[in-house]
């Protein structure tokens, strides 16, 4: 077979249009979108939630979710033998498009577990692709799968082939997905937000892996993301989308250094903004460690029944009005530690001394009855996923009012007025109070969660990955809101995150966690500019740089814990 000429695109999309009919109207999810993909090149399609970027990608394989349908345009695929086919004209359920899926165009998704079976071994799932497209026998399939697992850098591929997906970490599952996608040597790989759910170090590894495999195989890559830092690291060309339309298209250097569109400038501005310390933080006096600490944690320890020491001899302190960042990759113990502070988990060791509003100090770890209830009014939590933490059967008014009712702080007309005031305080229209959570965007739902958290006027808020599910522009808005509330209410925060740029923007001090321990702590500026611990250095070097002229991936520091 002859490969297509390098100058001809692997895929040429012209005037693509996709519609979703609703009861009252038709939503144009993709409206007159055009782009080309070339061998060995990466096109990043970037935009916020609802921009149409994922629908555009799924259209290429004719897997648009119902009731969506392609209503216009063409998608010309140049095949390995030089012939071409318009995918837009193929039956979504027909044999012709099924022959293309996996073999010529492969796709990896944001959440591997939605695409991998939990009841079948990894080897069987990857091997099925080889059986369908090449008719490979069992022994030959096994040999090829082991080779693929080795190619995507999964340790001990001879053993990994017989394991189930739930036995792998998130990053390893994504490697399995990539192995499955590459099984048939496709000419085009579509990657739909493949690193969004991963921590920054794992993300860097997956991006480097995709790039290496692209160099080795010459495949084209269509990469869907909302992260402009990732775009700067990996893209050759960029397509910026907003509400189904193309706002701007061009080489990555032009998009970042000479953007023509206001929306593109806003996206880049949002990510560059997070690279610096917030103006609110720069303007105010630095928070010094107060003699009367708000929270003083000493030698905290939690071991799960499995024997895993999730929190190992943790000590930290928070002063009134201070923001302490806790940063680390998945599995570092940062979320478990945060839950111990609120007694969601019962730590077996240590002291959690919290200074209440009346000046008394209570050990949260051993508190009971009214002491514990009063502490939980003064320490509140904001969660990563507002959808999972908001009751879909309750109105916004009921959700925000709930802690006020439980604490018996307001009722009747006063309760209604407090709810309206809280909604205004977090930037929500009180006229929306009778709506349900599903009627709000992700950013608005997180504002509801914040309003609920501040309703009882707490002294300390633990924010667990509170912005990681949001688009970058919404992320900076949410951080600015939280800092405004801090100044208005005298709040302290413990801000748990895997995103060092968010920590740098938001926090006075930072504690770096690795495998249940704090390995480094200090003023945020000191830790980010001159990290002392090798793990902190690795964490910082894994952050994508929002400038294609200064890519960090090739200079990334790897951390390997020495055997003790």
Would you give an account of this structure?
With 564 residues, the chain is an alpha/beta fold. It has a domain at 279-545: Rossmann fold (3-Layer(aba) Sandwich). The protein is built from 21 helices and 20 strands. Helix 7 (200-217) links the parallel strand 7 (188-192) and strand 8 (220-225). Helix 3 (122-134) runs parallel beside helix 6. The radius of gyration is 25 Å and the shape is globular. The model is unreliable at 1-5 (pLDDT under 50).
Shape: globular
Write out the CATH superfamily name of the domain at 279-545.
Answer: P-loop containing nucleotide triphosphate hydrolases
Structural class: alpha/beta
Number of helices: 21
Mean pLDDT: 88
- Could you tell me the radius of gyration in angstroms? 25 Å
CATH architecture of the domain at 279-545: 3-Layer(aba) Sandwich
Strand content: 15-25%
**CATH class descriptor name of the domain at 279-545:** Alpha Beta
Which residues form runs of ≥5 with pLDDT under 50?
A: 1-5
In CATH terms, what is the fold-level topology of the domain at 279-545? Rossmann fold
Placed side by side, the strands forming the largest sheet appear as: 6-7-8-3-9-10
């Amino acid at each position: 077979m002859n490969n297509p000429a390098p100058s001809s695109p692997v895929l040429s999309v012209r005037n693509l249009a996709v519609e979703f009919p609703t009861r009252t109207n038709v939503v144009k999810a993709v409206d007159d979108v055009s782009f080309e993909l070339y061998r060995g090149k990466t096109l990043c399609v970037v935009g916020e939630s609802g921009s149409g970027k994922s629908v555009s990608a799924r259209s290429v394989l004719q897997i648009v979710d119902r009731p969506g349908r392609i209503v216009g345009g063409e998608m010309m695929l140049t095949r390995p033998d030089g012939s071409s086919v318009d995918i837009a004209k193929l039956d979504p359920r027909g044999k012709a498009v099924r022959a293309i899926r996996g073999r010529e165009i492969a796709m990896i998704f944001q959440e591997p577990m939605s695409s991998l079976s939990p009841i079948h071994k990894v080897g069987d799932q990857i091997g099925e692709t080889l059986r369908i497209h090449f008719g490979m026998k069992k022994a030959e399939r096994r040999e090829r799968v082991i080779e693929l697992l080795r190619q995507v850098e999964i340790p001990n591929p001879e053993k990994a082939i017989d394991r189930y997906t739930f036995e792998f970490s998130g990053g390893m599952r994504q490697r399995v997905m990539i192995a499955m996608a590459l099984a048939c040597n496709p000419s085009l790989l579509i990657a739909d937000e493949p690193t969004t759910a991963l921590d920054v170090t794992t993300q860097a590894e997956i991006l480097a892996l995709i790039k290496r495999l692209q160099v080795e195989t010459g495949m084209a890559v269509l990469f869907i993301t909302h992260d402009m830092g990732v775009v700067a690291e990996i893209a050759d060309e960029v397509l910026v989308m907003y509400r189904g339309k193309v706002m701007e298209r061009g080489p990555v250097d032009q998009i970042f250094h000479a953007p023509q569109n206001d929306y593109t400038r806003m996206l880049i501005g949002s990510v560059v903004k997070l690279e610096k310390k917030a103006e609110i933080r720069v303007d105010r006096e630095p928070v010094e460690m107060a003699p009367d600490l708000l929270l003083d944690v000493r030698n905290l320890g939690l071991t799960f029944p499995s024997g895993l020491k999730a929190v190992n001899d943790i000590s930290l302190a928070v002063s009134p009005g201070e923001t302490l960042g806790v940063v680390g990759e998945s599995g570092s113990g940062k979320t478990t530690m945060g839950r111990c502070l609120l007694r969601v988990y019962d730590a077996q060791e240590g002291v959690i001394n919290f200074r209440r509003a009346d000046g008394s100090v209570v050990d949260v770890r051993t508190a009971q009855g009214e002491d514990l209830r009063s502490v939980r009014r003064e320490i509140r939590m904001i969660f990563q996923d507002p959808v999972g933490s908001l009751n879909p059967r309750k109105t916004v008014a009921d959700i925000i009012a709930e802690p006020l009712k439980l604490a018996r702080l307001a009722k009747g007309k006063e309760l209604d007025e407090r709810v309206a005031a809280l909604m205004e305080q977090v930037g929500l229209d009180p006229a929306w109070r009778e709506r349900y959570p599903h009627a709000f965007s992700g950013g608005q739902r997180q504002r509801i969660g914040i309003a609920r958290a501040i309703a009882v006027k707490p002294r300390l808020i633990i924010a667990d990955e509170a912005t990681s599910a949001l688009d970058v522009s919404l992320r900076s808005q949410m951080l600015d809101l939280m800092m405004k509330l801090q100044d208005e209410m005298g709040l302290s925060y413990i801000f748990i995150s895997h995103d060092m740029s968010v920590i740098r923007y938001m926090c006075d001090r930072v504690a770096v966690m690795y495998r249940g321990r704090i390995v480094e702590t200090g003023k945020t500026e000191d830790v980010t500019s001159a990290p002392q611990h090798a793990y902190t250095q690795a964490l910082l070097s894994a952050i994508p740089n929002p400038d294609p002229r200064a890519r960090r991936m090739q200079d990334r520091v790897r951390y390997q814990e020495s055997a003790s």
